[in-house]
Amino acid sequence: MSERDDDLLLEPPDEQVASVRDIVFNDVIAAHRAADIYNRERSLAGWWVGGIGCGIGVLATLALVVVVVTNQPQVRFTEIDDASGQIHESFGAKDAPAHFSDRVVNHYVAEYVGLREQFVWQTDSNTDRRVKLMSSPAQQAAYNDQKTKDDPASKYGVNGYALVSHFYPLIPREKGKDNSFEYEVPFVKSELLANTNQIKTTHMTARLVFSFHPEIPMASDQDRLDNEAGLYVISYTSSQD
User: Fold this and answer.
1) Please, which residues bridge with residue 162 across strands?
2) CA distance linking residue 231 with residue 124, whole number of Å
3) Is 116 exposed, middle or buried (0-12, 13-18, 19+ CB in 10 A)?
4) From CA 45, how far away is CA 53, in angstroms rounded?
5) pLDDT tens-digit profile of 146-184?
6) Predicted local distance difference test score (pLDDT) of residue 105
7) What is the dihedral of CA 158, 125, 190, 171, to 10 degrees?
8) Is 124 in contact with 89 (CB distance < 8 Å)?
9) What is the Cα–Cα distance from 27 to 33, expressed in whole angstroms?
10) Are 230 and 216 in contact (CB under 8 A)?
11) What is residue 140's predicted lDDT score, i.e. its pLDDT?
C-alpha cells in the first residue's frame, strides 16, 4: 500500500465523537418525527375546517332554497266598486259568489224572473237561449214544457207581449249548506194579448232555488257575457197572488 493510499484512511472516531454523532442523529430523527406529527395534525385540522365550511355552505344553500320556495311573491289584484267607491281585493271566479252583495244577488235573480216570465215575439229566441243558459237541465225541460202548454206565440201574437213591469222587494228565505239560495220574488206581470189593445196586470210571486257557479266554462264568449255570474237555477215556480 502506498503512502498516498494511507492518507485516504481516516482514523476511527474516538468515543466522544461517536457519542455526539448519535445525539445529533437522534435529534434529527426526533425533529423529523415531530415535523411529521405536526403536518398530520395540521392536515387533520384543515380537513375539519374544510368540512365545517362545506357544511355551513350546504346549510346556507338549503336555507336560501327554503326561503325562495316558501316566500314566493303573491300577486294580488284590487278593484273598485262603482256603486260604493270602495276598494277591495278582487276574487277568482270560484270564490266570487261568497262575496256577492245582496244588491248583486237581487239583480241576477230579478233578471232571471224577468226573462222567465217574458214573451216578445221578436226577441223570443234570445230569451229562450238565456233562460236555458241560467237553468239546470231539469229546469230547461220544465221551461220547454210550460211554453208548449201556454203556447205564448198564439196567446200574444206578433204585436202582443208579456213582461215584468214592476218588482217588489225580494225576500230571501234560506241559504243551503251547498251555498244554494231560496228566494221569493213578488212582481207585477203586464200582458198585452193578441188582437187586443188593453194591458192586463197581475200580481204574482216567483219562488226559486239557485246557486252561482261562474267558474263553469261557457260555450262561447257571448254566453259568458249573458250569464257572467254563473247563475244556476235549480227550481222555479210562479203563481198569481
Assistant:
1) 119, 191
2) 20
3) buried
4) 12
5) 999 999 999 999 999 999 999 999 999 988 888 899 999
6) 94
7) 180
8) no
9) 10
10) yes
11) 97
Under DSSP, the state recorded for 218 is -
- How big is the CA angle at 33 (ends 28 and 34), to the nearest 5 degrees? 95
Phi, psi of 89 (to 5 degrees): -70, 135
DSSP category for residue 217: -
Asked whether residue 125 carries a pLDDT value surpassing 60, the answer given is: yes
Residues pairing with 239 in the sheet: 205
Mean pLDDT calculated for residue range 44-50? 72
109: which 3 cell numbers? 235573480
Single-letter code of the amino acid located at 20:
V
Q: N- to C-terminal Cα distance for the chain?
A: 156
User: What are the φ/ψ torsions at residue 2 (nearest 5 degrees)?
Assistant: -80, 170
* pLDDT at site 74: 61
Contact 216, 185 (CB under 8 A): no
3-class DSSP state of 113: helix
Cα 112 off chain centre by: 29
Q: How many CB atoms lie within 10 A of CB 130?
A: 19
**Alpha-carbon distance 87 to 101, whole Å?**
14
* C-beta of residue 228 within 8 angstroms of C-beta of residue 209: no
SS3 212: strand
State the alpha helices, DSSP H only, in the chain.
3-8, 15-70, 102-116, 124-133, 137-150, 152-156, 221-226
Specify the residue for cell string 276598494: 87
